[in-house]
Amino acid sequence: MRLWLTATLIAGTLTTPAHAQAAGPSGRQADSTAASGGPGRPALGGSERRAGVAAAHRHPAHPGEPGRQAGSAGPGESGRQSGSAAVSGESGRQADFAAAAREYGVPVSVLLGVSYLESRWDFNGGSPSTAGGYGPMHLVDAFPADAMGSLIGDALGDARGDDSRPLPGTAAMAPAPSAARLAAPPVTLPEAGRLIGADLALVRSDPATNIRAGAALLASYQRRPSADPADWYEAVARYSGSEDEAAAHGFADEVFAVMREGVERRTDDGFLVRLDPVAGLPSPASGAPGLPGPTSGAPDLPGPASGAADLPGPASGASSLPEPASAADLPESASGEDTESTTQFDPDPSPLEDETDTDADYPDYTDYMDYSNDPDFPDYPDHWRDPEEEQPRQNVEKTGDGGHVECPASLACEWMPAPHRRFGKKHHRDYGNHDHLSRARTVDYIIIHDTEGGYQGIPSLIRNPKYVSWHYTIRSRDGHVAQHVRTNDIAWHAGNWDFNTRSIGIEHEGYLAKAGTWYTEAMYRSSARLVRYLAHKYDIPLDRAHILGHDNVPGTTPKTVAGMHDDPGPYWDWEHYFELLNRPLKGAKNGDSIMIRPSYDKNRPRFTGCVSRKPGKACPRHGASTVWLHKQPSESAPLVDDPGKHPGRPSTYSVYDHGARASTGQRYAVADRQGDWTAIWYLGQKAWFHNPPANPTAVPARGPLITPRRPGTRVYGRAYPERSAYKLASYQPLIPLQYKIGPGQQYAVGDTVTGSYYAAGAFSPSRHVTTTGRLRYYQIQLGHRVMFVMAKDVRLIR
User: Fold this and answer.
1) Is pTM beyond 0.85 here?
2) I need a labelling partner for 420 at 20 to 30 A (CA). Which of 55, 70, 330, 565 fits?
């Protein structure tokens, strides 16, 4: 530890060292951190300062209260004042950050930037993250027992979702303690508490103490004292806790990007905090959104400042409808079949295909195991592809075994492969845990999941060939990305085979029912950058008809609807996510429909069920991306029914029950209006939500709609072809779901689809069969989930 910090900690106060007050490099002046009257004034003593902060903590600003605790410069200060705050304008959490920055000589913009990437300045009710991190500074304590999780949430149920080959349930056990220790993040809370002489329970439970401890820890990582934010890059990288240098620098790049951009938000406990933009910071080593691109690898996507329309899809409330181009293109025949049906074997893969282990007697692992050192399951490269024909990789992994990953070059990504292995005696069907393709596939969706467990278990779980699979995992504490399955291959993640064949699945470390605690800004930003890259690569529209939550994927048949997954849930901040995607969810003039868009921080609806042992207990009030839907325009009216989610029973306010909810970014047709209430068409009924003009929870939107031609029009969870199209593969019945819609109702259209089915019931992709029919479907926003209607059954309204 540096002598200047040691002296500070012993004395209990800090007079900023003279050399730390000096201006930074030419053209950049230091952050102002003096309490008042300019540089050099001693900070308040620890006990005196804590008393003032404690009083502010007891009386936070109420969400929605006008005014803000500004971060403006004090009298006589000049130059770059980014993130600085005068005492006269400080209160609450803004004051906590400013005081801690003064006390430990950390530029306040750096302290605010680090905390924003870790927690978005939230307290999260004092609960730990999946990495064991506490408070606004995400100080990591002993690894929590429940953070490992014995299963990723998507392992529960049939993640493959293919009726022709049901996926057996996967038994799993927690990874071995030694593996957990290796994967666990560094413990920082005890050291941070020691640096400030505070009881560790107080560091966990009091936000002001947590911020002080985090500031002291960050200062201990700094090589030399400096008031110039640019000099703190390496200390910020170390604070990430990442052992991998590229991942640590990626975290630091994101912190500095936040400092450049500036940000203001109200925290989960009601404090308004602001970080003013910091001008003149150097370009990051690995790039950042809206900043100069990376120095090597594939170019990152242009940011918003470039003005480039780098991604497909609308920039407002309109929805993309690639085809048909006009209503005249729709089929009018009774069959609705307007294209040729085709059936074909997929082309043979590389001649390197190994058929010699067809009957290999692999052990029948029914319990979870760590396969990383198992000689029966070596991590050999993808041998189904001809290297001459392989698509060029856009980025080389920064960690791991030297393989390639598909990521923008500005992200630190790791190749952590899922196995494509035989494990049983059945000739071709006992294999896992995903399907290779020997041709390029079409990708229509990116599906957002949460893990319902900690990142620490991922490296071992993903290597189980009897487990489920997904394409990427993003770590909460620093936004680190691991890729497991090539994007051209089919992972088993969505619970619906039709969606699996046309989607990329991204797991995010966290839990649905812990009030957004785990959805850190670092994870949001890495995820958004990855999704931008993938959407650009596969020409996926950036809208809520194509960027789906797992809770938006429909069931395949009536019996599977109730068991479909609910992640990432109401606490995922879709509005913020689309801002990071550079596709903000904007309203449209003269809209013919509406888009749900409550203010996340101000919208704090009622939920129950966050504590599994007390399902009826109210969840802590927290920002959310959903609105409740009622049978009548009144808060006291019952919620609308969902006969698929809970047949014969009413909807509930459970955080796991989306049967009467609409989510940010989803577009619906307006059914009625009455006072401050708006009704939408939802699951075949009018559904009312509170939408007052003074505080709207929806905005006008434009896009195509459909209306049924006749009563009892059926909807489907899969867009499969007609029976006559099947020549080589087994016929997949067209099974309608429980829901029916009728004339007079209208539903928003997100896409048109030609029925197809990819039969992949064999280990070798050369045995796979693609069947494409002539039956056309519209993808519609029927309820909280998207579903399909046959084009012949409805009329398109543009």
Assistant:
1) no
2) 565
